[in-house]
Specification:
With 98 residues, the chain is of the alpha+beta class. Helices cover 73% and strands 13% of the residues. The protein starts with a strand and ends with a helix.
Length: 98
Amino acid sequence: MAAVAVSGLVLCAATGVSAIETTPSQDEIRAALDRGVEAAKAHLLERSEDLIRHELARTARQLEEEARGEARRRARNLVADALQRVAASADGGETRRD
């Protein structure tokens, strides 16, 4: 593993921060790193939540549109069937009177 010392901080290429050299500002450096990592995690989580919300909203809109289309198709079929029954009933009634 390659390690690089930067201003009292030892960075390991494979694992990130592997050790902090003893300096008067060791706690400050560690706190700054922790804030940076936590801020990055928070940003990533927030961005992921936004993307998921957007995708869910898009999917919901798509499902609603599909449901509306299906409902329209079924309604048209019901009306067409009812009209055919009424027409058949009216034709059947007239032929019976003859």
